[in-house]
Design goal:
This protein has about 160 residues and is mainly β. The protein has 2 domains: about 80 residues, SH3 type barrels; about 60 residues, Roll (SH3 type barrels), CATH 2.30.30. It is about 5% helix and about 45% strand. Strands 1, 9, 10, 11, 12, 13 and 14 form a 7-stranded mixed β-sheet that branches. Strands 2, 3, 4, 5, 6, 7 and 8 form a 7-stranded mixed β-sheet that branches. InterPro entries: PRC-brl_dom, PRC_barrel-like_sf. It comes from Geobacillus genomosp. 3.
């Protein structure tokens, strides 16, 4: 299991040609922890961000991602269909609060299984000094709602 930050920036290669066609920029997932796809920064003069459904990923390796071909890139799904960490519906840096109102910390990253397509947990920061002395916390994945910079998880902390 790895965090998304382990994957961010990895190059994307076409299986058919071996050509590099972009790099991973973000992850797209539902509030119930299903990874729907990745956001890629396309290579080229007019490089732009495109959506890459998880079903198009042939192999997620430690140093690269292999897809069938560049035709696998698609337009973005509707914003209501999910969240990202850093993009328009990005939740990284949001305050995480338990259902009972207890403040947990700031969402820093997600742990995910790329082969199974699910979020397994959240990496929580309690602040710079706490992270240095105690390390970041790991919280098991739970359904959440995100609104106005606050992620409310449906669990007791």
């Amino acid at each position: 299991m790895r965090t998304f930050s382990d994957v961010k920036g990895l190059p994307i290669y076409e299986q058919t040609t071996g050509k590099a066609v972009g790099a991973i920029a973000d992850i797209w997932f539902t509030s119930h922890g299903t990874v729907k796809g990745l956001v890629a920064e396309r290579s080229g003069l007019f490089g732009r961000r495109r959506y890459l459904p998880l079903s198009a990923v042939q192999s997620l390796q430690h140093d690269r991602i292999i897809i069938r071909d560049a035709d696998s890139f698609q337009p973005f799904p509707s914003p209501e269909s999910g969240h990202s960490l850093y993009g328009e519906r990005g939740i990284a840096g949001s305050m995480v609060v338990a259902a009972d109102g207890t403040t947990i910390g700031l969402l820093d990253d997600v742990y995910f299984d790329g082969q199974l397509g699910k979020i397994d947990g959240y990496e929580i920061s309690e602040g710079f000094f706490s992270d240095l002395t105690e390390g970041k916390k790991r919280m098991e994945a739970a359904p959440f709602t995100a609104k106005e910079g606050v992620v409310t998880v449906e669990t007791m902390w």
